[in-house]
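During the no-cost extension, the postdoctoral fellow (Dr. R.K.) reprocessed legacy sequence entries with the updated structure-token encoder. One reprocessed record is reproduced below for audit purposes.
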Amino acid sequence: MTTDYKLANVVLRVDAHAEHHPELYYRAQRGAVCYDAEAEALEVTGEADFLTYINGLSAGKWHKYTELTAVTLRIAVSGSGKVHLVGVPEGEDAACEIASRTVDALESPVTLEIPFELTGYDLIGFVLDPHQDSSLKMFEASWRAEVEEDRIRPISLAIATTTFNNERYILPNIELVKSGISAESGPISRNFHMFVVDNGRTLNVEELSDELVTVLPNPNAGGSGGFARGMMAATETPGAFTHVIVMDDDVRIMPESIIRVYNLLSLARGRYRDAFVNGAMLSLEEPTRQYEDVGRVVENGVYRRIKKDIDAGTLEGMLKNERTDVEIPRAYGAWWFSCIPVSAIEKNGLPMPFFIRCDDVEFGMRNRPIYMTMDGICVWHASFEGRFRPSVDCYQYTRNFMTMIAVDDCASEQKFVLRFKRSIRLALRDLDYVAAELTLDGFEDYLKGPEFLAHADGSLLMKENGAKNEKLLPVDELDADVLARAGVTQEVLANVDYVFHPQPFMKVWRFLPYDKHYLPNALLRRTPSYVVKNGETTLEGSSVRSRVLVYLDPTREKGIVRQMDRERFRAIRKREAELMKRYRREGANVRAAYKSALPYLTSREFWASYLGLCQ
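Re-encoded structure tokens follow.
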């Protein structure tokens, strides 16, 4: 026996954060589409293309993941015009018409069903084309399939999101989830729950908790502790949930993404039955810019995006997104929106107690899953440019990545240590003594072994390390004379470009083991210079032979003036040499200790004790 199963809804209303980018939902001339709130319908007075990131159907992915071969567009419309079903064939770059239906002078809506074959297409969409001097109103639309009832898996889905004093994001997200899931007529409405882990203990538990949402007060154990608590809640009763979505609190979500994940999991077949689903991160500042959906760990201990920035507002970007293979070795999904089977948690454990940074990467390396992704399963998150903090990007990254290599064998420890030493050298060249010192702090704490990690007060460490970060100032508060002498002009400040464009010579030059601290003052520059950096990457400028350096963050809105400190340089180099000597002596034993401690550090027993749930 077959049943009519909905794969995805067509989203009619443009979310507020993307109001200036309706091309994510439809492409049309300005003013040709507007939402009629009273009728709860989208009114179209000119041709409107719904083969878009949010409203198109990822035909190739649905066929690949679920083995479906036939799908139907169901659309309720009134007015006068045509509905064209369109698709992009495999390997092609443009859409062609598959079928069309005519709507003629209807005052009340009629429901049209347009069936089609999935196979042979990467993307499917539709176009509303009103007749001249007429309009079409779309009241609802969805992509559906006739499915054998016995091939629909029973899915029960939980969300685990963790927050810390971030009510401006988490409260709207709670309301979005409640309203979106409650309004959905499919099985998700009866098989869903949201766990909000409140690391700041500032949310009103009684007011926010109900049949769909549970707020869990938690000590401030960072992202890893919050996600661990949410996973524990979702797995506390055996069989209560089949999957958990871990999701950041500081995102803008679209309930439809959650619904699509549920429907995809219900129909996934073969090797994809136990796959993870990773939602893409799009930029809040540039809503059509897809930053990442799945990343990978490189042999030298770096993590990289599988796809570079994609313009989700264009058909070209959508096709690139769909056609780029994410099923590669050492892949991981970041936890801004990642759906994990409960079976993986039960088999391989909870997150490592990293507080923040690398917990999602390590979980991916430990589980080595297959990832499913598709257009329209996503969240919007603030961009990462200009957010470099040595307390996180140097200390947490070094300590946690070394630990991850030890427990998961996911990269070359030797190559990572070489990168670690190079990072210190690059920081010192740019007079960034704070970054060098916090990198060494992370390495030293790694060498203390798993006992340190198990008992560290992550919140206190973050506070202490955060106090060491440089205090960047708005550029207009920096010494204007120093800026002028360094060559920081208005043209420099306006030339914002986050892309690294290295010259071949500079790529070689940066690898050479030189350092100006060894030169006498007579050989150093008398005038200041400037650099624009994004993390370790120098986007513009040079610090060669500079005793005074203007550092600008990648937004070029903030910066600081640094002065050479030879004594601090010598202390850092001496400490580095001592730590490397200790590493050569103790490194193998430390690595083995982490490996042995992994089962306990990721166990329910450990986390219950760490979070004070055993009292």
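The longest strand covers residues 96-117. DSSP finds 18 helices and 29 strands in the chain. The remaining legacy entries will be reprocessed before the final report is submitted.
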